[in-house]
Amino acid sequence: MKKTGRTIPDFSPKSLRAFVAVASLGSIARAGTLLGRSDSAVSLQVTSLERDLGHQLFDRTGRGLNLTAFGARFLVHAEDILARIDAARRDAGASEAGGILRVGVVQDLVPRIVLMVFDATADAPFKPWIEMTTGTSADLAVALGEERLDLAILARRHEEPGMVTSLPMLWLGSPNLEVRVPLPMVAVTPPCPFFDAARRALGAGGIRDELCFVSANLEAVRLAAAAGAGVLCRTKLAEGPGLVPVGDRLDLPPLPTIGYVIETSRSAGSFAKSVASRLKTDLAIALESLPV
Protein backbone atom coordinates (compact mmCIF):
# COMPACT_ATOMS: atom_id res chain seq x y z
CA MET A 1 0.00 0.00 0.00
CA LYS A 2 1.36 3.37 -0.94
CA LYS A 3 1.83 5.71 2.00
CA THR A 4 0.49 9.22 1.71
CA GLY A 5 1.16 12.37 3.68
CA ARG A 6 4.28 13.71 5.34
CA THR A 7 6.18 11.53 7.81
CA ILE A 8 7.38 13.36 10.93
CA PRO A 9 10.83 12.11 12.05
CA ASP A 10 11.36 10.94 15.64
CA PHE A 11 11.98 13.88 17.98
CA SER A 12 15.47 14.34 19.37
CA PRO A 13 15.45 14.65 23.19
CA LYS A 14 18.17 17.30 22.88
CA SER A 15 15.95 19.36 20.58
CA LEU A 16 12.98 18.92 22.91
CA ARG A 17 15.04 20.04 25.91
CA ALA A 18 16.32 23.05 23.98
CA PHE A 19 12.76 24.01 23.03
CA VAL A 20 11.40 23.62 26.58
CA ALA A 21 14.32 25.59 28.04
CA VAL A 22 13.87 28.47 25.58
CA ALA A 23 10.10 28.47 26.14
CA SER A 24 10.57 28.55 29.92
CA LEU A 25 13.35 31.16 30.02
CA GLY A 26 12.39 33.27 26.99
CA SER A 27 15.97 33.48 25.80
CA ILE A 28 18.33 31.29 23.80
CA ALA A 29 21.30 32.58 25.81
CA ARG A 30 19.71 31.72 29.17
CA ALA A 31 18.63 28.33 27.81
CA GLY A 32 22.19 27.66 26.65
CA THR A 33 23.54 28.50 30.12
CA LEU A 34 20.99 26.18 31.75
CA LEU A 35 21.72 23.30 29.39
CA GLY A 36 25.47 23.85 29.16
CA ARG A 37 25.29 24.35 25.39
CA SER A 38 26.36 27.17 23.10
CA ASP A 39 23.76 29.66 21.86
CA SER A 40 24.27 28.44 18.31
CA ALA A 41 23.69 24.81 19.33
CA VAL A 42 20.43 25.68 21.11
CA SER A 43 19.24 27.77 18.16
CA LEU A 44 20.10 24.99 15.70
CA GLN A 45 18.26 22.38 17.79
CA VAL A 46 15.09 24.50 17.99
CA THR A 47 15.24 25.22 14.24
CA SER A 48 15.71 21.51 13.55
CA LEU A 49 12.66 20.67 15.66
CA GLU A 50 10.57 23.27 13.80
CA ARG A 51 11.69 21.76 10.51
CA ASP A 52 10.73 18.26 11.66
CA LEU A 53 7.32 19.46 12.86
CA GLY A 54 6.63 21.66 9.89
CA HIS A 55 5.47 24.42 12.22
CA GLN A 56 7.01 27.52 13.71
CA LEU A 57 7.34 27.28 17.50
CA PHE A 58 8.34 30.87 18.28
CA ASP A 59 7.26 34.23 16.98
CA ARG A 60 10.50 36.02 16.21
CA THR A 61 9.02 39.25 14.84
CA GLY A 62 8.77 41.13 18.14
CA ARG A 63 11.13 41.60 21.05
CA GLY A 64 12.25 38.37 22.62
CA LEU A 65 10.89 34.92 21.80
CA ASN A 66 7.18 34.29 22.23
CA LEU A 67 5.48 30.96 21.66
CA THR A 68 3.18 30.69 18.69
CA ALA A 69 -0.25 29.13 19.20
CA PHE A 70 1.15 25.82 17.92
CA GLY A 71 4.24 26.21 20.08
CA ALA A 72 2.13 26.61 23.21
CA ARG A 73 0.20 23.43 22.38
CA PHE A 74 3.34 21.47 21.54
CA LEU A 75 5.05 22.59 24.77
CA VAL A 76 2.61 20.40 26.73
CA HIS A 77 3.60 17.36 24.65
CA ALA A 78 7.31 18.16 24.87
CA GLU A 79 7.24 18.44 28.66
CA ASP A 80 5.28 15.17 28.91
CA ILE A 81 7.74 13.34 26.62
CA LEU A 82 10.75 14.58 28.59
CA ALA A 83 9.10 13.67 31.90
CA ARG A 84 8.57 10.13 30.65
CA ILE A 85 12.16 9.90 29.41
CA ASP A 86 13.48 11.13 32.77
CA ALA A 87 11.25 8.68 34.65
CA ALA A 88 12.50 5.82 32.48
CA ARG A 89 16.10 6.81 33.13
CA ARG A 90 15.49 6.97 36.89
CA ASP A 91 13.80 3.57 36.74
CA ALA A 92 16.67 2.09 34.75
CA GLY A 93 19.22 3.53 37.14
CA ALA A 94 17.29 2.26 40.15
CA SER A 95 16.84 -1.17 38.59
CA GLU A 96 20.57 -1.40 37.96
CA ALA A 97 21.19 -0.47 41.59
CA GLY A 98 18.59 -2.87 42.94
CA GLY A 99 15.11 -1.45 42.40
CA ILE A 100 12.70 1.23 43.52
CA LEU A 101 11.20 1.17 47.00
CA ARG A 102 7.94 3.14 46.97
CA VAL A 103 6.90 4.13 50.49
CA GLY A 104 3.71 5.90 51.52
CA VAL A 105 3.40 7.56 54.92
CA VAL A 106 0.78 9.63 56.75
CA GLN A 107 1.97 13.14 57.45
CA ASP A 108 2.17 12.79 61.26
CA LEU A 109 4.97 10.27 60.96
CA VAL A 110 7.11 11.80 58.21
CA PRO A 111 9.88 13.20 60.50
CA ARG A 112 10.36 9.76 62.08
CA ILE A 113 9.82 7.50 59.07
CA VAL A 114 12.34 9.19 56.76
CA LEU A 115 15.26 8.29 59.01
CA MET A 116 13.81 4.85 59.76
CA VAL A 117 13.59 4.01 56.05
CA PHE A 118 17.25 4.93 55.57
CA ASP A 119 18.20 2.80 58.57
CA ALA A 120 16.07 -0.12 57.34
CA THR A 121 17.76 -0.10 53.91
CA ALA A 122 21.31 0.68 55.07
CA ASP A 123 22.39 -2.97 55.14
CA ALA A 124 20.85 -3.90 51.78
CA PRO A 125 23.26 -5.56 49.32
CA PHE A 126 22.29 -2.87 46.79
CA LYS A 127 21.34 0.82 46.93
CA PRO A 128 17.60 1.17 46.30
CA TRP A 129 15.95 4.21 44.79
CA ILE A 130 13.54 5.38 47.52
CA GLU A 131 10.39 7.19 46.44
CA MET A 132 8.33 8.52 49.36
CA THR A 133 4.73 9.72 49.07
CA THR A 134 2.86 11.53 51.84
CA GLY A 135 -0.87 11.93 52.15
CA THR A 136 -4.00 10.92 54.00
CA SER A 137 -4.60 7.30 54.98
CA ALA A 138 -7.47 7.15 52.49
CA ASP A 139 -5.29 8.32 49.58
CA LEU A 140 -2.41 6.05 50.51
CA ALA A 141 -4.71 3.04 50.86
CA VAL A 142 -5.96 3.62 47.31
CA ALA A 143 -2.39 3.95 46.00
CA LEU A 144 -1.42 0.73 47.79
CA GLY A 145 -4.41 -1.11 46.34
CA GLU A 146 -3.53 0.12 42.85
CA GLU A 147 0.07 -1.04 43.50
CA ARG A 148 1.54 2.42 43.09
CA LEU A 149 3.22 1.86 46.47
CA ASP A 150 5.20 -1.10 47.80
CA LEU A 151 4.38 -0.38 51.43
CA ALA A 152 2.46 2.24 53.36
CA ILE A 153 2.17 3.43 56.96
CA LEU A 154 -1.50 4.22 57.62
CA ALA A 155 -3.66 5.46 60.49
CA ARG A 156 -6.68 3.33 61.45
CA ARG A 157 -9.46 4.00 63.96
CA HIS A 158 -10.14 0.36 64.78
CA GLU A 159 -7.88 -2.25 66.32
CA GLU A 160 -6.80 -4.86 63.79
CA PRO A 161 -4.20 -7.63 63.44
CA GLY A 162 -0.71 -6.41 62.70
CA MET A 163 -1.26 -2.96 64.19
CA VAL A 164 2.08 -1.40 65.11
CA THR A 165 0.78 0.57 68.09
CA SER A 166 -1.94 3.03 69.04
CA LEU A 167 -1.88 6.53 70.51
CA PRO A 168 -4.56 8.49 72.33
CA MET A 169 -6.16 11.29 70.34
CA LEU A 170 -5.93 14.76 71.87
CA TRP A 171 -7.70 18.09 71.57
CA LEU A 172 -4.95 20.54 70.58
CA GLY A 173 -5.06 24.29 70.24
CA SER A 174 -3.46 27.61 71.05
CA PRO A 175 -2.79 28.21 74.76
CA ASN A 176 -4.90 31.37 74.43
CA LEU A 177 -7.89 29.70 72.75
CA GLU A 178 -11.16 30.62 74.48
CA VAL A 179 -14.37 28.61 74.68
CA ARG A 180 -16.73 29.55 71.87
CA VAL A 181 -20.09 28.19 70.70
CA PRO A 182 -20.15 26.57 68.25
CA LEU A 183 -16.67 25.14 68.87
CA PRO A 184 -14.34 26.21 66.01
CA MET A 185 -12.37 23.34 64.49
CA VAL A 186 -9.51 22.93 62.01
CA ALA A 187 -8.79 19.66 60.22
CA VAL A 188 -7.03 17.89 57.41
CA THR A 189 -9.29 17.73 54.38
CA PRO A 190 -11.90 14.96 54.93
CA PRO A 191 -12.11 12.01 54.89
CA CYS A 192 -9.99 12.16 58.05
CA PRO A 193 -10.24 9.60 60.89
CA PHE A 194 -9.28 12.25 63.46
CA PHE A 195 -11.97 14.70 62.38
CA ASP A 196 -14.56 11.90 62.20
CA ALA A 197 -13.69 10.82 65.76
CA ALA A 198 -13.83 14.42 67.00
CA ARG A 199 -17.24 15.00 65.44
CA ARG A 200 -18.64 11.83 67.02
CA ALA A 201 -17.25 12.72 70.44
CA LEU A 202 -18.65 16.24 70.27
CA GLY A 203 -22.02 15.00 69.05
CA ALA A 204 -22.24 12.49 71.90
CA GLY A 205 -21.44 15.29 74.34
CA GLY A 206 -24.05 17.61 72.86
CA ILE A 207 -21.44 20.15 71.73
CA ARG A 208 -22.02 22.01 68.48
CA ASP A 209 -18.99 22.65 66.24
CA GLU A 210 -18.12 24.41 63.02
CA LEU A 211 -15.24 23.67 60.66
CA CYS A 212 -13.26 26.88 60.19
CA PHE A 213 -10.14 25.75 58.32
CA VAL A 214 -9.22 22.72 56.20
CA SER A 215 -6.12 21.82 54.22
CA ALA A 216 -4.61 18.67 52.74
CA ASN A 217 -1.33 19.78 54.34
CA LEU A 218 -1.05 18.88 58.02
CA GLU A 219 1.55 21.57 58.71
CA ALA A 220 -0.85 24.23 57.41
CA VAL A 221 -3.56 22.87 59.70
CA ARG A 222 -1.18 22.88 62.69
CA LEU A 223 -0.21 26.49 62.00
CA ALA A 224 -3.88 27.50 61.76
CA ALA A 225 -4.61 25.85 65.10
CA ALA A 226 -1.56 27.47 66.72
CA ALA A 227 -2.78 30.85 65.41
CA GLY A 228 -6.06 30.37 67.26
CA ALA A 229 -8.31 29.46 64.33
CA GLY A 230 -9.78 26.49 66.19
CA VAL A 231 -9.30 23.16 67.90
CA LEU A 232 -7.38 20.35 66.18
CA CYS A 233 -7.88 16.66 66.92
CA ARG A 234 -4.61 14.73 66.47
CA THR A 235 -2.13 12.89 68.72
CA LYS A 236 0.93 13.92 70.71
CA LEU A 237 2.86 13.74 67.44
CA ALA A 238 1.24 17.03 66.36
CA GLU A 239 2.17 18.98 69.50
CA GLY A 240 4.66 21.78 69.10
CA PRO A 241 5.30 25.47 69.74
CA GLY A 242 1.98 27.19 70.28
CA LEU A 243 -0.02 23.96 70.07
CA VAL A 244 -0.89 22.28 73.37
CA PRO A 245 -3.58 19.98 74.79
CA VAL A 246 -6.73 22.02 75.53
CA GLY A 247 -9.31 19.31 76.22
CA ASP A 248 -9.41 19.71 79.99
CA ARG A 249 -9.38 23.51 79.93
CA LEU A 250 -12.21 23.69 77.38
CA ASP A 251 -14.09 20.82 79.07
CA LEU A 252 -14.18 18.74 75.88
CA PRO A 253 -15.24 15.07 75.83
CA PRO A 254 -12.73 12.19 75.84
CA LEU A 255 -11.41 10.90 72.53
CA PRO A 256 -10.56 7.35 71.37
CA THR A 257 -7.16 6.05 70.30
CA ILE A 258 -5.80 5.91 66.78
CA GLY A 259 -3.75 2.98 65.53
CA TYR A 260 -0.95 2.81 62.98
CA VAL A 261 -0.42 -0.10 60.61
CA ILE A 262 2.19 -0.93 57.99
CA GLU A 263 0.88 -2.77 54.94
CA THR A 264 2.54 -4.03 51.76
CA SER A 265 1.06 -4.28 48.28
CA ARG A 266 0.02 -7.60 46.77
CA SER A 267 3.05 -7.58 44.46
CA ALA A 268 5.60 -6.41 47.04
CA GLY A 269 8.88 -8.32 46.83
CA SER A 270 10.94 -9.80 49.62
CA PHE A 271 12.98 -6.62 50.01
CA ALA A 272 9.91 -4.40 50.53
CA LYS A 273 8.49 -6.92 53.00
CA SER A 274 11.75 -7.04 54.96
CA VAL A 275 11.81 -3.22 55.13
CA ALA A 276 8.17 -3.22 56.30
CA SER A 277 9.02 -5.71 59.04
CA ARG A 278 11.96 -3.59 60.22
CA LEU A 279 9.82 -0.45 60.19
CA LYS A 280 7.15 -2.14 62.32
CA THR A 281 9.71 -2.84 65.02
CA ASP A 282 11.39 0.57 64.89
CA LEU A 283 8.13 2.54 64.73
CA ALA A 284 6.59 0.62 67.64
CA ILE A 285 9.63 1.41 69.80
CA ALA A 286 9.61 5.09 68.79
CA LEU A 287 5.88 5.62 69.42
CA GLU A 288 5.71 3.64 72.64
CA SER A 289 8.62 5.66 74.06
CA LEU A 290 6.86 9.01 73.54
CA PRO A 291 6.50 10.93 76.80
CA VAL A 292 2.99 10.74 78.28
Keywords:
alpha/beta; Arc Repressor Mutant, subunit A; 292 residues; 3 domains; 5-stranded mixed β-sheet; D-Maltodextrin-Binding Protein, domain 2; single chain; 9 helices
Listing every helix as H and every strand as E from the N terminus to the C terminus, the arrangement reads HHHEEHEHEHEEEEHEHEEEH
CATH superfamily of the largest domain: Periplasmic binding protein-like II
Mean pLDDT: 87
Q: Count of DSSP E strands? A: 12
- Which CATH-level-2 architecture of the largest domain? 3-Layer(aba) Sandwich
**Largest sheet features:** 5 strands, mixed
Percent in helix: 40-55%
Q: How many separate helices?
A: 9
Quickly give the structural class: alpha/beta
Unreliable runs: none
Description:
This protein has helices spanning 13-25, 28-35, 39-53, 69-97, 110-121, 137-145, 193-204, 218-226, 270-288, and strands at residues 58-59, 66-67, 100-106, 129-135, 151-156, 163-168, 170-173, 183-188, 209-215, 231-234, 244-245, 257-264. Helix 1 (13-25) crosses helix 2 and helix 1 (13-25) packs across helix 3. Strands 4-3-5-12-6 form a five-stranded mixed sheet, sandwiched between helices. The model has no long low-confidence stretch (mean pLDDT 87). It has three domains: 13-94, Arc Repressor Mutant, subunit A, CATH 1.10.10.10; 99-163 and 259-288, D-Maltodextrin-Binding Protein, domain 2 (3-Layer(aba) Sandwich), CATH 3.40.190.10; 170-255, D-Maltodextrin-Binding Protein, domain 2 (3-Layer(aba) Sandwich), CATH 3.40.190.10. It has 292 residues and is of the alpha/beta class. The longest helix is centred in the first third of the chain and has 29 residues, at 69-97.
